[in-house]
Amino acid sequence: ATPVARRAARKAGIDIETLRGSGRRGRVELVDVTRVGRGGALAASSWGPADGASVLLVHGFAGDRVTFEQVGKTLGRAGLAVRAIDLPAHGETLAEAHDFDGIVAALAAELDPARPVHLVGHSLGAAAAAAVASRKGGVSSLTLIAPAGLGLSIDAEFVEGMARAESVGSVGHLLRRLSDRAAGFSAEAIAEIHEQLARGRLRALAADICRGGRQTLNVRGELARLAGMMPVRIIVGQQDRIIDWRDALDVSSAIALHVFPRAGHMPQWDAPAEVAAIIQKEGVHV
């Protein structure tokens, strides 16, 4: 069995030895685990004390919860109860999502109005976070990092290329567009990312959120309403090559905007300490 298939099976409580593999020479692949997955629950990582103020971290398209690991650990050490999830069709989560509404529904199911969370989303996850916060209770504050849904501009080649994942080499080239830090991925890490993406789980979602080379998502209306209801802040990087960071310049004046001159599409990678400080000091009082 492949390493990613073993991890997914372990997370889902599935005995991988009982599965018939579809890979070369009968090797168990991630898709084999997904087919028999019990579905529903989102894979997650947690940091910090259980009784701290709750923070929920939501990754972007083609990412997973590992993209928030440094920020999550920092917030956990500060006494916050931090949880980072893998969205449907991503990472080790077995549940699928074929469109943006499916992502929003899955995220909404993670919220408990009885225990409000400080919701932090990146890119696609930021758009989903804004949509969920505007429709359902249980959100104390909203932090959006390089949010999708503020304008039409998007690197469609990146979205479509990650969804197709035609080769290890192409995935490696696309990852470099996210951040200078992405250049530090090992060959093994890139191969593993390619293995996950090559299953085609993101193809329908990619077609839903990006059409004709443009974004289909629009959360400006949600943000305008939320700005008067809770603390909302946006973090963008001026070196972003996936979306146009300037789309955030004309949001409501009630929304705090943090511009990172040297960050790309992944400020939580490029400046994790600074991003964690913004979440902690401006949205979460401990």
Query: Which residues sit in consecutive blocks of at least 5 with pLDDT less than 50?
Result: none
CATH architecture of the largest domain: 3-Layer(aba) Sandwich
Number of strands: 9
CATH topology of the largest domain: Rossmann fold
The domain count comes to 2
Gap between N and C termini? 44 Å
Cα radius of gyration in angstroms? 18 Å
User: Would you state the CATH class of the largest domain?
Assistant: Alpha Beta
Shape: globular
Main-sheet strand order equals: 1-3-2-4-5-8-9
Structural class per helix/strand content? alpha/beta
- Let me know the average pLDDT: 91
The level of helicity is: 25-40%
Strand content: 5-15%
User: Biggest β-sheet: count, sense, barrel?
Assistant: 7 strands, mixed
The SSE order reads HHEEHEHEHEHHHHEEHEEHH
The name of the CATH superfamily of the largest domain reads Alpha/Beta hydrolase fold, catalytic domain
What is the number of helical segments per DSSP (H or I, 4+ residues)? 12
Descriptive account of the structure:
- The protein has helices spanning 3-12, 30-36, 69-77, 100-108, 124-135, 156-164, 168-175, 187-197, 203-209, 220-226, 267-270, 272-283; strands spanning 44-47, 54-58, 81-85, 117-122, 139-145, 210-211, 214-215, 232-237, 256-260.
- By secondary structure, it is of the alpha/beta class.
- The chain has two domains: 1-38, Dihydrolipoamide Transferase (Irregular), CATH 4.10.320; 42-283, 3-Layer(aba) Sandwich (Rossmann fold), CATH 3.40.50.1820.
- The termini are far apart.
- α1 (3-12) runs parallel beside α2 (30-36), α5 crosses α10 (220-226) and α7 packs across α8 (187-197).
- A seven-stranded mixed β-sheet has the order 1-3-2-4-5-8-9, sandwiched between helices. The chain has a two-stranded antiparallel ribbon with strand order 6-7.
- β4, α5 (124-135) and β5 (139-145) form a beta-alpha-beta unit.
- 37% of the residues lie in helices and 15% in strands.
